[in-house]
Amino acid sequence: MMQRIWATFYARSLEFVRDRSTLGWNLILPVALVFGLAFVFSGEGQPLFKVGVVAENTSVEAKPNPALHPFLQIAHVDFYSVPADTVDAAVRKVGRHQADMLLDLRAGKMHYWVNGDSQKGYFLEQLLQGSSGAKLGKQSVQGEQIRYVDWVVPGILGMNIMFSCLFGVGFVIVRYRKSGYLKRLNATPLSATEFLLAQIFSRLVLVVLVTTVVFAGTNLFMHFTMEGSYLNLLLVLVLGAFTLISLSLLVAARVSSEELAGGLLNLLTWPMMVLSGVWFSMEGTNPFMQALSQLSPLTHMLTAARAIMLDGANLAAISTHLLVLAGMSVVFLAVGAYTFKWTAE
Prior knowledge:
Elements lengths: L1 H17 L1 H21 L8 E6 L22 E5 L5 H9 L5 E4 L6 E5 L3 H12 L6 E5 L6 H32 L1 H6 L5 H31 L7 H23 L5 H18 L11 H7 L3 H15 L7 H21 L6
Parallel strand pairs: 1-2, 1-3, 4-5
Antiparallel strand pairs: 3-4
């Protein structure tokens, strides 16, 4: 059994490596995107002040009531509501320069957080101290500024993994079936399970190697923020790629038309790319769309990767995302293996 799996694994891996254009595309595209976005967003950004406000019965959808404090009536400042149960996360955003200040206007609290290294935070603090409202106690927060490239690099690599897994496995199997290659394999002792396992591990090894090389190579020049463990990040990469490969097998289990397979794969990839937070955060978007994004394995993969890189999260903190990815993998793989067919008839 292992010899048959190894032979199929080796043949598929060799086929990919010999396809220089596909291999080059998988290496060049993410590198070009990382450096391109780093160049585009390397400036100081827009002069927009962001201030979180915690108040009684705070709703994420509602803007803070300006009557709570005269400071909230200042123009050209983006005040947004922060629920009481997410204060710790909001404080971390202030520390990372993703928000300029956090106000807690609840009864018995009445204080604010500001990063002493933030120029915008300093300016807002002067405005707050000069306002005529109730005086607030100061809480200092320290932290390095998170660049856009630090936040977006998991999204770029995740997008590359998604396309490589879905099209590199699903589309190839459909092509094999249409050309009659699978029909010939069916005449050998190779079983469907052995064939699928070989396809999975071949693509998984290649995706992990390519992604690791791209990340390590760009990190030499960009010096990405990395607060957590590289081993935990590798685990997220392997599990996320395995889930996406399993999804591609589900799509390709019975499809015989390359046109239909391409359409189905595009139907999956584009919504995932938009809703999974590849280019921008889903935070603050429509709650229904946020809930819908949780159905995407790419969402859980990117959320876990960013939590490790930017917040230093351990495995316990991202365990929910890992369990969701593992559960999706089992379902996709089981259904794909059960419905798999060798021939196009």
